[in-house]
Amino acid sequence: MRYIQTWAVFIFGSFLMACSPGLNWRDVRPAQAPLAALFPCKPEAAERKLPLGDKEILVKMLVCEADGAAFTLGYAELKPGMPVGDVLDLWRKATLSQMKAKPPTVLPFALKGALPLPQSSRVVAQGSRPDGRTLAVDASWFAVGSMVFQAAVYFNHEPSQANRAVADTFFSGLKIQ
User: Fold this and answer.
1) Which residue has the higher pLDDT, 15 or 27?
2) Coil vs helix vs strand at 16
3) Global pTM?
4) According to the model, what pLDDT value does residue 1 have?
5) Residue 69: in which H helix or E strand, if any?
6) Bridge-partner residues for 155, per DSSP?
7) Reported confidence tier of residue 23, pLDDT bands at 50, 70, 90
8) Residues 6 or more apart whose Cβ sits within 8 Å of residue 157
9) CB 129 within 8 A of CB 80
10) Bridge partner residues of 48 (DSSP)
11) Is residue 2 over pLDDT 90?
């Protein structure tokens, strides 16, 4: 009987851990963007200018941290005449350069409703922060009309299988509206 009670406590405790509020997924709709995203925490909004070669774009960002990872969604409306595919490529290169990434794994990224561009990609890379600490990223770049997007999950360590599953959930929660 004691064995059954111990087992029941273990199962119940495991169930409670699985329902941990560490990842509290919620639907987020960025202002002025035709996209819905699934974030594991409540994101904060920010803006920054991103230099891309001889041009610069104003990127609106949604960012939150949960379960040891930073989840980000950046998006920008391009000025007329800016080539969407080139901007995606330059943004990917700027991100990887900034973190001094080792050669990344690059995969195509096709999101229903997004432009079918060869520069739409999903990248997994490892590099470092400016202070030398490890930084890993699982990121995707895509476009809808003249709007470009970067969705990314940053880890302070090499991502585990569980981390990859969390990143997959984040990316599969991206929906063009």
Assistant:
1) 27
2) helix
3) 0.85
4) 44
5) strand 69-77
6) 69, 136
7) confident
8) 68, 134, 136
9) no
10) 59
11) no
